[in-house]
């Protein structure tokens, strides 16, 4: 098996395993107690905090351990907003933040606050100018990820932090995807006010997040009071896991430059080879300014879920932002914000230590798996393609394809098959009630050099997407 | 070293250690993913949920794992209150709940809700009749612990649950101290609506709590949305720790009856011997209807912090509810609610497996440690007692002792030394601004057969506590 979903979670680093075992014996007592088991636990906790603070680039007394990265983000957003309530109730986030940030933003909005989303370009990158534009007098907090978790694009954290600092707005950086990679992926020296991270993303155990709040940043912890972790993270400290998290952070950081460079070349192989080996595939995300270990691509006429299952059977564990792999049947909000193809989407994120041979094997296997899924769907170029369900319309588009009730990637497949039947210069409409169509039909047009005319509500339900054949 | 603070935390059970190590290898991936590492993690999580649900006495789909017992209580209280918001905003708690519940109640009050505290008797027990009295039409939730964490008294959970059920009010049971002991300490079959627990209290790892919400109980999870754990506990599941927690719960339950009976006899030894071996000591809490492993006593004329340090040096780790051991310089709210002596307070809670010889050694060491602390303080009966700072007053009490600025147990020591100097039938006042005096001066009078006349604000600051010498 090759596990290629490091951005979701990585196995425990050997250093973490070792530290955890030792700390289970030494760190199980309450660090608030004065007896020796308590003092021993406190020493372990203090040492872990120092190590983690050094890796993060803050003072130990600025850093609290939370119960997860999600908790760090939820509490960081709520605490900073509450601390700045007098300044205003405005929250600024990028459109491609992790769902934990977007959920915190939704909760803020539900409680009467305002949320402004800053869009991204087709590479998934926010523009500092766009941030500058929306920072207002009532902005209490801005949030920006250090790097995108789905496409790997690094964000201009230092520039946005400067803009925020100049306007007196605290910036919370979601560094979940970057802490393992250190300064290169973290915009070291950026003037952030709060920073959040998650240990199981860097080889630490689950159950540990971290939240750094710079001295001087106004912060009012949400929820019931609790004396643990400077009042910022309630509940009995999970010291063995915290010790293991800090130890593994140091260990991965020590290897980050070398291992990052090695994985970068493997990812470059994927970025180059996938479009060459797989017809109608698009690699998304910034090709240069990106995380070293992560690459995302999408494949036309492919059902993402079937692709994941096919790759799983072939021994590869990857994730996908396709709508069919989501419980909401919506394509990933990141791909939507970027306006890129979402069907047949695959995210590959290589854990440290991934052998180059595994990547070569992936490249050897992928084209066959994609072809098989396409064949099953009757995709253009695949086998056993059924005749398209097209009919002539008396007015408007030459052809209307009724794909109502059909899920991604069927509407795009039907479009591709039918467009060959209309004259160059004529239009065709696809009726679809699938969320992915909004994203994938324009993306298909871009990839195939056809004109995307637009979308409008259809009298039959769903949306009519109109495309003009250009070639 | 003998660690006698199981009510705070216990070391990892060997079964938990074993389960944790195995699950670290198998359960690190995201259980929401479809690839094999994710499916393996999901299987482990499902099996742990079934095991824990069986031990708790609920259905697996009623049980969520949280990041701590505190989180279970915070989220349980907030979620049940929000779910019942239409019914009203009244919250009923006992006065001796864990601080996590009282903090959740304070947060509810700060947000405009109402909180009613039900008092306890001198044994620390609530009366079902008192609960019945305060359950009103606008009561959204009632909370009651299964057993008190400081004095071990079992609460009448089944009776209170019936009262609540009859009135349609959900009851949340804080079972943190009881889950290890099973039905005997849990009022098995009680008609609770919600139940919370904490794994590190039963030999599981830190970082795992559990929250059970019975089907049909209205519940609206607080804070930002998150799809994990039925939406009730946000953040990536800590599966290795959850697996270890469930395994250790089964293991301790299998031994609970036998080990409970054995520890009960050890605790009985302490309950009998401490008052015999240590002059002016009082054992508090219910002597019969109690947790098997826990006993609390207080010693007159003793500084709790010095006593903890003395016992620590002698090799015993215990905790205390004395004011001097608290960051707020307040005696424990449990001892205050019971109206019992708080000075020189010691809680002994024996972890499973405690050898009887350790308890005997504790009983052998305790009298000397208490005597030493008393001697250092110049307590009555100790050595080098300084003359009391008493002076005659022209009117009112025969003698006024100025103990302003002096901390527990000094005001009581001064009182005890000075009372011998006033005639039988005459009164004496102690001026004190120490929070513990409110509790300890009346308690001292009760223990020594003197009359506690009352307290009133003093012109010199603090409070004047008046005592009449009866013998």
Automatic annotation (TrEMBL), chains A, B:
Family: Belongs to the class-V pyridoxal-phosphate-dependent aminotransferase family. NifS/IscS subfamily.
InterPro entries listed in its UniProt record: Aminotrans_V_dom, PyrdxlP-dep_Trfase, PyrdxlP-dep_Trfase_major, PyrdxlP-dep_Trfase_small, TusA-like, TusA-like_sf
Classification of source organism: Bacteria, Bacillati, Actinomycetota, Actinomycetes, Kitasatosporales
Reaction(s) catalysed (UniProt annotation): (sulfur carrier)-H + L-cysteine = (sulfur carrier)-SH + L-alanine
PANTHER family xrefs: CYSTEINE DESULFURASE, CYSTEINE DESULFURYLASE FAMILY MEMBER
All copies of domain UPF0033, residue ranges: 401-425
Classification via PROSITE patterns: UPF0033
Cofactor(s) for this UniProt protein: pyridoxal 5'-phosphate
Protein name in the entry: Cysteine desulfurase/sulfurtransferase TusA family protein
Organism listed in the record: Streptomyces polyrhachis
Gene3D superfamilies membership: Aspartate Aminotransferase, domain 1 (3.90.1150.10), TusA-like domain (3.30.110.40), Type I PLP-dependent aspartate aminotransferase-like (Major domain) (3.40.640.10)
A UniProt-annotated Pfam family: Aminotran_5
């Amino acid at each position: 098996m090759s596990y290629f979903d490091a951005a979701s979670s990585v196995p425990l680093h050997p250093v973490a395993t070792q530290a955890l075992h030792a700390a289970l014996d030494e760190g199980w007592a309450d660090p608030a107690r004065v007896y020796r088991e308590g003092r021993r636990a406190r020493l372990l906790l203090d040492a872990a905090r120092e190590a983690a603070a050094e890796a993060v680039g803050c003072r130990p007394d600025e850093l609290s351990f939370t119960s997860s990265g999600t908790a760090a983000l939820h509490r960081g957003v709520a605490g900073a907003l509450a601390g700045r309530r007098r300044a205003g109730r405005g929250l600024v986030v990028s459109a491609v933040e992790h769902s934990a940030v977007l959920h915190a933003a939704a909760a803020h909005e539900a409680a009467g606050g305002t949320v402004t989303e800053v869009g991204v370009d087709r590479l998934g990158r926010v523009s500092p100018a766009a941030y500058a534009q929306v920072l207002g007098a009532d902005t209490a907090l801005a949030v920006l990820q250090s790097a995108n978790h789905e496409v790997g694009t690094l964000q201009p954290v230092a520039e946005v932090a400067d803009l925020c600092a100049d306007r007196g707005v605290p910036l919370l950086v979601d560094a979940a995807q970057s802490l393992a990679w250190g300064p290169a992926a973290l915009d070291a020296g950026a003037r952030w006010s709060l920073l959040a991270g998650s240990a199981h993303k860097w080889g630490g155990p689950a159950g540990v997040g971290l939240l750094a709040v710079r001295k001087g940043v106004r912060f009012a912890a949400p929820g019931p009071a609790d004396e643990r972790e400077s009042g910022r993270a309630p509940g009995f400290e999970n010291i063995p896991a915290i010790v293991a998290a800090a130890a593994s952070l140091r260990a991965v950081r020590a290897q980050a430059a070398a291992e990052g460079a090695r994985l970068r070349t493997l990812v470059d192989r994927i970025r180059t080879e996938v479009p060459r080996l797989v017809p109608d595939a698009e690699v998304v995300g910034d090709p240069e300014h990106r995380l070293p270990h992560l690459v995302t691509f999408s494949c036309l006429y492919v059902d993402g879920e079937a692709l994941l299952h096919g790759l799983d059977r072939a021994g590869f564990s990857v994730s996908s932002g396709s709508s069919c792999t989501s419980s909401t049947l919506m394509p990933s909000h990141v791909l939507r914000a970027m306006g890129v193809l979402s069907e047949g989407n695959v995210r590959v994120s290589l854990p440290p230590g991934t052998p180059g041979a595994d990547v070569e094997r992936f490249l050897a296997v992928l084209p066959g798996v994609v072809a098989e899924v396409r064949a099953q769907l009757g995709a253009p170029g695949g086998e056993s393609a059924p005749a398209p369900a097209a009919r002539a319309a008396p007015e408007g588009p030459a052809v209307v394809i009724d794909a109502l009730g059909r899920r991604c990637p069927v509407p795009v497949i039907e479009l591709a098959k039918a467009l060959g039947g209309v004259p160059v210069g004529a239009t065709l409409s696809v009726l679809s009630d699938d969320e992915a169509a909004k994203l994938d039909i324009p993306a298909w047009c871009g990839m195939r050099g056809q004109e995307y005319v637009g979308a409008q509500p259809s009298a039959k339900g769903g949306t009519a997407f109109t495309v003009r054949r250009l070639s």
